[in-house]
Amino acid sequence: MSANFDREYRLAAGKAGGMGFEIGEKSKSQPVPLHINFSIERTDLETQNTGRVTVWNLNKEHLATLDEKDCVLSLKAGYGSRMPLIFAGIVTNCITTHDGADRKTEIEVVDNLVEIRDTYVTISYVGTVNWKTIFDDVANQMGVAVTYSYNAEFADIANGFSFVGLARDIMTKGCACCGLVWSLQNGVMQVKKPGDVMSREVFVLSEDSGLLGIPARVTEANSETSDKTSIGWEVEFFLNGAIHIDDYVKLESKTVTGYFRVAKLTQAGDNISGDWTCTARLMEVQG
Question: What contacts 234, CB < 8 A, 6 or more positions away?
């Protein structure tokens, strides 16, 4: 894939609603963007996604911005003008050390830490209320968007409902009532059936579309029923920021061909050396 040689990134950071900075764009004064290394880990669980980004030779203004409380960091990466959002979250830790003649800053980022950590919600309804209405209202109070899988179904609650407490608690309770699960992905709350995909759109992973090496077969215990396991494949492919958690993937290789969902995803790269790659765990679709 010749496009892999035209790697581009944009890293932006700053306090929400305030001034910040962006690096990565080439210019006459900066013909080679600052050296960056990143590793982003995602899962389809309620636990938060995490990322580690290392940047060399940030200036004092950049470092001061990263030191601000609840600094938001976003990373776009791709090839040429195609740079999808790879990760967005809150800076939780920032360490700057000397690396020879250079200055290295290691940044730890957590997806939607502020929303998860601080959001208490107050909701109250009279009469019959549908759980989708509750989810919409909770997401609105959290300040995040919410998306639902194509086949999600929502139960009604009769005789009114009230709740005061952490947003994550009411989301988990509501999903249990409806046979659904939820997670946060780049500031968007995803609600879907366990083991299923978000939409019917299919991404093809093959040698022609960036698949690397030979898929490795894995078995994973089913969290819903301990007596069953799911079959899946560990795959590596050139970085494709369009592929997300719970996307629908058709895997085409010499050892396996079939349809799977993305259950885990690690995106990693360095703009100075090596390839930009994704490592994904593709599991059976259970919907």
Answer: 215, 216, 217, 218, 279, 280, 281, 282
